[in-house]
Amino acid sequence: AKGLRGVSSGSGPAQSGYAFKLAMEILTGKRELAPQNIEYPLPWVPAAAVKMCEGDTYTDGCNVFPESKVPSSFVSEVLNPILLPEINVESALNGTPVPGATIQPLPADVVVTANNEPGINCDPCDAAPDMYKLTKVEATVQP
After folding, report:
1. Residue 92 is inside which H or E element, if any?
2. Which of 5, 54, 82, 100 is the most exposed place for a label (fewest CB within 10 A)?
3. In Å, how far are 14, 49, 68, 77, 79 from 46, measured between CA atoms?
4. DSSP letter for each residue of 12-77
């Protein structure tokens, strides 16, 4: 409203579905994976690329749903057509299965090792020397 630009990101429900699928692939022998911290790839949509969806899935390059379809607290990261194609808006909102959907395998190259974050995803572990480097930001918008 005052020239501010921002970003919002979160992945709680999406991480659960992704972790479950990955664990099942390991337990059923479809994937071998050494113990490690794994990064969940969050989507990044700059303001200029926001495109309203008309249906219940991300199609034709759309990446956001109108507030008439989802509540403002809706965690859209769960609608990942590559990692979690089994989920649509209806299933995410109501916990109902998508008719005809079956669990799809994850892409072969999906696992990305996450950096060690002492006290967050590993203990004990060593932090990178500049992990908590001070960053200074100057305001560009005046009140």
Report:
1. helix 89-94
2. 100
3. 20, 5, 22, 15, 18
4. HHHHHHHHHHHHHHHHTTS----S--B--------GGG--B-SSSS--TT--B--TTTS-TT--GG
Domain boundaries, the chain: 1-143
Q: Within 10 Å of residue 84's Cβ, how many Cβ atoms?
A: 23
**Any idea what DSSP says for residue 118?**
B
Nearest in space to 8 (alpha carbons), one of 45, 39, 38? 45
CA distance 5 to 118: 31
Task: Return the pLDDT at 2.
Answer: 60
* Weakly modelled stretches of the chain, pLDDT under 50: 1
Q: What is the pLDDT of residues 20-55, one digit of tens each?
A: 999 999 999 999 998 888 888 887 888 888 899 988
CA distances from 127 to 36, 109, 112, 124 (A): 15, 26, 18, 10
Residue 89 has a CB neighbour count (10 Å cut-off) of 20
